[in-house]
Write a structure and sequence with these properties.
This protein has helices at about 5-20, 95-110, 110-125, 130-150. The chain is mainly α.
């Protein structure tokens, strides 16, 4: 009696098929393949062996801003030195904050000269406050733009 060369392959295939059935059904998440909320390349949640729900999927990282290339024909502007006024003690921070708020209110009302005066006073009381400096610079720019109008 001659053995067929295909017999060992058939036995191997049957053994593999039976071993896959013996391990039980594969864990299938309902709707995993058809879930419209899941995007391309995202993994489907796999239930834990103890039956508890899987941990929530991590959120994608926020996109990073692309670095701006410096202009080839424009030289880099020198950075201003750190103000020495930051080391000075604050005369009256609460009064400076009050004057800043009044200055911003006047700026919103259109009283630009009054706003510049109030923000200048606030800057003298608290020279290290970057918000006051920024608001004062903005008010001065607005005043210059208004005066430049024909």
């Amino acid at each position: 009696m001659t053995r067929s060369p295909m017999l060992p392959l058939a036995l191997l295939a049957a053994t593999l098929a039976l071993s896959a059935c013996a391990s039980g059904p594969a864990a299938v998440t309902p709707g995993a393949a058809t879930d419209p909320a899941r995007g391309y390349g995202e993994m489907a949640p796999i239930p834990n062996p103890d039956g508890s729900s899987p941990a929530p999927a991590p959120r994608p990282a926020a996109p990073r801003p692309s670095p701006q290339a410096p202009a080839a024909n424009k030289p880099a502007a020198p950075r201003p030195a750190a103000p020495a006024a930051a080391a000075k003690p604050v005369a009256n921070a609460a009064r400076a904050a009050q004057l800043r708020a009044q200055g911003l209110e006047q700026l919103n009302r259109g009283a630009i000269d009054r706003a510049v005066a109030l923000l200048s006073q606030a800057s003298q009381l608290n020279p290290g406050n970057a918000l006051i400096q920024r608001d004062l610079a903005r008010a001065v720019r607005i005043r210059g733009a208004v005066r430049a109008k024909p």
